[in-house]
Design a protein that fits this description.
Largest sheet: 8 strands, mixed
Number of helices: 14
Helix content: 25-40%
Distance between the termini: 17 Å
Order of helices and strands: HHEHEHEEEHEHEEHEHEHHHHEEEHEEH
């Protein structure tokens, strides 16, 4: 087994359960690692070392009695800051929420701990969880462990950076616009955006009880096996629905040689770099070499531009639901002042954030049609490969959104092109697993999305495991491999 801090959560749990390692010793190794590495990247922003030490000691006492707490017995983990942890701030990066200290754990957090995890801290986020970068006035800027001049992604940027740097064994992120997927891509780790409501959202909404449209919580890890372990721990209805149903998740039932794989490597609506498209192609080639049927022309039966428009409007509406009355009133006033033909970058967002319920219902109907189109598509194909983002990690840019852009193979593109690849499967609530494919020519990681049918979460995760065995695996950032 490699060093504790780069081992998988599954490996660590096995070693601790079998008495070859002590949970307390593993935890102290992670603390020493945080002290050495975290100051340069600022991924872990809150710690409860004494609480974690007490929990690790209890895990070791349980081991001595021959008792296992579960599949994550004694494993040190962190949480994205937006996940409620009793006695620990959940601010979403808002200075006004510094005093928001929940009294109980989020459902996902409670399930993680019930499976044996030793939760020792929280990781950084952008304000409102609404950026592809991770910085805020409370906790500062998080940097990419592969190159601190580059972003780690967002909004689960601290989570991905902590995993890549060996500061935690497992993380719980969240995703509405790629917030699990783009940090996994930028930092070279695995991430899984689950089917909507497969994992309860309660405890991830600044006090809200309801799930947020499109948004999910899900695992991030250094191995695809850890994703499956975590998904099985976290999945299942909240207690208010538990009397009525349980999820029935089917795994990958067929070998690679009989899989049908569709490939969507680029698109003129949001062009990706040749290098990013090439990595999608490399995964496709690996599957083809294993005997899978691969098709680069197969597409679900809808107009991608229309699907992206539906996604953006539902996304902006979902993000507006948490506004205060005063904030919402200001948005209404801004919309009323817009000219009918105003198409500046923020205007569609303002209109979507203040739409009537009748308009939202029509969008939801259009989204349902997209879901059926995906359903028919996945009756023919097992998985769809696509990029996560147009480019690898780019430099920090804290200017207003209206002043930001992306450079894609020397061509300037809109900043929010990043949402196109997140939204295609996201708006239809589909499961997506991101796998690392290794660093590119600038030494920065590149990930690929494996998109599956609704509630096909285990299918994409288990395919990720097979690809991991073929070399699409986590590798430590070179500067930190021996640090």
């Amino acid at each position: 087994m490699r060093e504790s801090w780069f081992a998988s959560a599954t490996e660590l749990a096995r070693e601790i359960r079998q008495g070859r390692m002590r949970a307390a010793e593993v935890l102290e190794e992670f603390f020493a690692r945080v002290d050495r590495i975290n100051p340069a990247i600022n991924a872990v922003v809150l710690q409860d070392r004494e609480g974690a030490r007490a929990r690790a000691a209890q895990a070791d006492e349980a081991t001595a009695r021959g008792v296992s707490w579960g599949p994550l017995h004694g494993v040190p983990v962190t949480l994205k800051e937006s996940n409620d942890r009793a006695g620990t701030p959940s601010t979403w990066g808002y200075p006004a929420m510094r005093a928001n200290v929940p009294e109980r754990d989020a459902v996902a957090v409670a399930r993680l701990e019930a499976a044996g995890a030793v939760i020792y801290g929280k990781t950084n986020v952008p304000i409102a969880l609404a950026d592809f970068q991770s910085y805020n006035p409370i906790y500062g800027v998080t940097r990419n462990p592969w190159n601190t001049d580059r972003i780690p992604g967002g909004s689960s940027g601290g989570a991905a950076a902590a995993l890549a740097a060996g500061l935690t064994a497992l993380e719980i992120g969240s995703d509405i616009g790629g917030s699990i997927r783009n940090p996994a891509h930028f930092c070279g780790v695995f991430g899984h955006k689950p089917s909507w409501e497969l994992i309860p959202f309660r405890g991830h909404g600044l006090g809200a009880l309801r799930p947020i449209d499109i948004a999910v919580v899900g695992p991030m890890a250094r191995s695809a096996t850890d994703l499956e372990v975590a998904l099985r721990v976290l999945a299942g209805p909240d207690e208010i629905e538990a009397a009525g149903y349980l999820p029935r998740l089917e795994g990958l039932a067929r070998p690679l040689a009989s899989l049908r794989v569709a490939v969507w490597a680029d698109d003129p609506r949001a062009p990706v770099s040749a290098e990013v498209a090439g990595r999608v192609g490399a995964v496709a080639q690996a599957l083809a070499a294993a005997g899978a049927e691969v098709d680069e022309r197969a597409r679900p039966g809808f107009d991608p531009s229309q699907a992206h428009e539906v996604y953006l409007q539902l996304l902006w509406a979902a993000l507006a639901a948490g506004m205060s009355d005063a904030e919402f009133q200001r948005q209404l006033e801004r919309v009323e002042a817009l000219a009918a033909d105003d198409r500046e970058w923020a205007s569609p967002m303002l209109r979507a954030q203040t739409m009537r319920h009748r308009d939202w219902a029509r969008l939801d109907e259009a989204r349902t049609a997209l879901k059926w189109a995906w359903h028919r598509f996945f009756q023919q194909w097992d998985v769809l490969l696509m990029p996560v983002m147009p480019v690898p990690a780019f430099e920090h840019d804290h200017r207003p959104f209206s002043q930001r852009s992306l450079m894609v193979d020397g061509v300037q593109r809109p900043y929010f092109d990043c949402l196109f690849w997140a939204g295609l499967p996201g708006v239809s609530c589909l499961p997506v697993t991101v796998i690392p494919t290794g660093p590119g020519r600038e030494g920065l990681p590149i990930g690929v999305q494996l998109v599956g049918p609704a509630f096909g979460d285990l299918k994409t995760i288990q395919l990720a495991q097979l690809l991991e065995a073929r070399g699409f695996a986590f590798v430590p950032p070179p500067a930190l491999a021996q640090a």
